[in-house]
Amino acid sequence: MDCACGSGADCGMAAHASFAFNTYWQRTKAAGGTCDFAGAAMLVTRDPIPFVLF
Q: Could you tell me which residue ranges the X8 domain spans (predicted)?
């Protein structure tokens, strides 16, 4: 979280790490990111929301 928040992620309203990780990726995808989330985040090619069970 510290790396993402310190590297441009929107952490002001982030209640969940997934929001911070996503905004970090959105802001750094063109230039490439440098954060290593040690398995706490993964890049997906499909929207995972339809597969989440509540």
A: 1-54
